[in-house]
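Journal club prep — side note

Before the paper discussion, L.F. wants everyone to see what a predicted structure for a comparable chain looks like in token form. Sequence:
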Amino acid sequence: MPLLDAIPPIRGRRGRPRRRPRELFADRGYDYDLYRRHLRARGITPRIARRGVAHGSGLGKQRWVVERGFAWLHAFKRLRTRYERRADLHLGLLQLACALICFRHLESILK
């Protein structure tokens, strides 16, 4: 729940920006009624896969985007295994990796 509180305002339509997402997608590891109740109390629709139910819930269509992003970041070894003790150094390397990923993606589009 502290992670949800740390989400910055979401830009979009005109007017006051939303402070929380409309939906939250998660895998079976977060399938607890406590999490679902907290999300609904905050006005967020939980889209959490159920444990014990066969695969094919359709959540993978949204989650693969996040998994692909993690795979791109894991191409940088220092981010895959965190060697830095200081959080500011790790954040700097994370931002540099994101910039390199965006640059490479734009470069491939413009070719």
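L.F.'s comment for the group: The chain has two domains: 1-62, 75-111. Keep this in mind when we get to the figures.
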